[in-house]
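Collaborator request, handled under Task 6.
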Amino acid sequence: MSGPERRDPDHEGPGDEGPGDESPGDESPGDDGPGGLPELIAARRAKAQRLRESGEEISPHSFPGVQPIAEIRAAYEHLRTGEETEDAHRVAGRLAARRGAGRAAFLDLVDRTGKIQLHARADVLGADAFARLTSLDLGDLLGVDGAVLRSRHGELTLRVDRFQILAKALRPPPDKHAGLADVETRHRRRELDLIANPEVRELFAARARVVAAVRAHLDAQGFVEVETPILQPLYGGALARPFTTRHHALERELYLRIAPELYLKRLIVGGMERVYELGKDFRNEGVSTKHNPEFTMVEWYEAYADYRDQATRLEEVVRAAARATSYDGSPDLERAWRRVSFVEAIQHATGVDIMAHRDVPSLERALRERGVEAQGRHDTWPQLADDLLSKFVEPTLTAPTFVFDYPLELSPFARAHRSTPGLAERWEAFLGGMEIANAFSELTDPDEQRARFDAQRRLAAQGDRETQPHDELFLEALEYGMPPTGGVGLGIDRLVMALTGRSSIREVVLFPAMRH
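Structure tokens returned to the collaborator:
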């Protein structure tokens, strides 16, 4: 620690906080300056070396007893202007600004919870320690012990009684005025984004609260959290292309899972009855504002329930997640969600009843007669039907909406509808114009499931690359008997997007996939 403990509590000093100007001669953070970035880095390295040579420890092993800045600010909100305390506290964070001159200086220290002003005086620290403190660069990490006061300008402040350098920043931080605005840089260099933009730190803190709220809600409802393989000998549980790898010791091809569904349903067969898994899934498909090849999903399965029961449970889970964030309440998630059917939604958007046109040429012809152009190539009728929903219906579903009762061909693991031939007991949930969840009344009949696998094989032969492969081990599990079950897959990334008002999945994933 640097600096003696002596102080003058009655003297605030001539350098009371000003408008936020930095000390003369300080580099502009993030600005290459006259000599450019290499010279700034060289100057910082030279300063670090001088500190080491003087015996200063600039990379200690620890700094215990640190309090969050927000906790201190909340505890002393009541202090009046000019009021001082003798209450000692310890904070640590990154030096964000410095101002003042002569024998007093004000510095801003930022941690993950907020910012606090520091008041440093030469008569408290001693001339040498004061000089070391005021010569630090913006971005340096600093630990401080001191007492809380409210300055003459009304700013909650920590008087610096002692300090310690915790890390020397060899590169200047992003510009504090312009921030880090370039989107590509923000996503590729998330550490800089977090330094420059406090709202991004809060966003990812909110994401963590969403995850915790989802877990807490399911735990409270008697669900058991489990872990199933991410490296799988056979992918399944969704219609998507997998990532493929090879295990050399086992001499076999393996896949990064596209979903944990089939393993979780085997646990239902085993009698666990209510299970969920929250983790990473991987799909080797396009990258867009709504798709990242690596994404976070929670899937839960509940014995003795169906897809209508799971619609109610999904509403409850989303409400719990929204309450854990600063969600603005629009749209209203406390009310029951709107419910529409898949066929009726497409017919309302395009004027075509897709169930009356059950092959690609017939459906495309009916669409053209209505002036609707289905873009791209569609090898199979399910592909075309799904694309119609994505292009013409999904963008309009900004209010919380369930789209119920999908065509059976799009739902290889869902029960056939109990009253409408050709449809499955499946829904997808939409919020903010995007799908956030998918659910079934799960198919439990092993013979019917075998027939569905055969139908998927035929679709693959027609050119559909996103089909479910035949999984004999899963079929054998079903032959032991699986109770009536409802299952849900909820995308955490998209849920966070909807609750925080973000328009791109890259904004809510710390390190999204990017082109080289």
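The cover message to the collaborator said: "The first helix runs from residue 36 to 53. The chain has 15 helices and 17 strands. Please let us know whether this matches your experimental observations."
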